[in-house]
Structure to design on (136 residues):
């Protein structure tokens, strides 16, 4: 394991603290102390949930792909799960920014880009683990 890998994994783990702090914003939204319409409340909840789950999933994928038997392409593509942890929540939050939006704006595309990154990253990680396991 390289020092840059350890440092980047540590930084990623520390983002969970930020996500947890974001939960306090979500509580203010749900308690109606922050003005938000129902669309915004729903999207903010989804963004917060996706951020937390995908960061942890991205770290788990990184740990699973540490073995030298796993092909390098799989390790690189596995980090797409972490990219999804950025894109999807950003899409949920940024697509409903503004005063009382009636529908999400064009930044909703980030949700779909994140979903694509998630699928590709998980498939690459899964195939890499199978290939690595079969070659032992």
């Amino acid at each position: 394991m390289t020092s840059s890998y350890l440092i980047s994994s540590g930084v990623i783990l520390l983002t969970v603290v930020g996500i947890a702090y974001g939960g306090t914003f979500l509580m203010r939204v749900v308690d109606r102390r922050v003005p938000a319409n129902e669309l915004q409340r729903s999207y903010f909840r989804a963004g917060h949930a996706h951020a937390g789950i995908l960061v942890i999933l991205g770290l788990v994928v990184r740990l699973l792909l540490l073995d030298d038997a796993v092909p390098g392409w799989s390790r690189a593509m596995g980090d797409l799960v972490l990219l999804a942890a950025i894109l999807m929540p950003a899409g949920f939050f940024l697509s409903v920014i503004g005063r009382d939006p009636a529908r999400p704006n064009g930044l909703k595309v980030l949700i779909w880009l994140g979903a694509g990154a998630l699928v590709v990253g998980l498939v690459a990680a899964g195939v890499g683990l199978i290939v690595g396991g079969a070659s032992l």
Q: What stands out?
A: The helical segments are 3-30, 38-64, 72-78, 80-94, 109-134. The chain has a mean pLDDT of 93. The chain has one domain: 3-134. The radius of gyration is 17 Å.
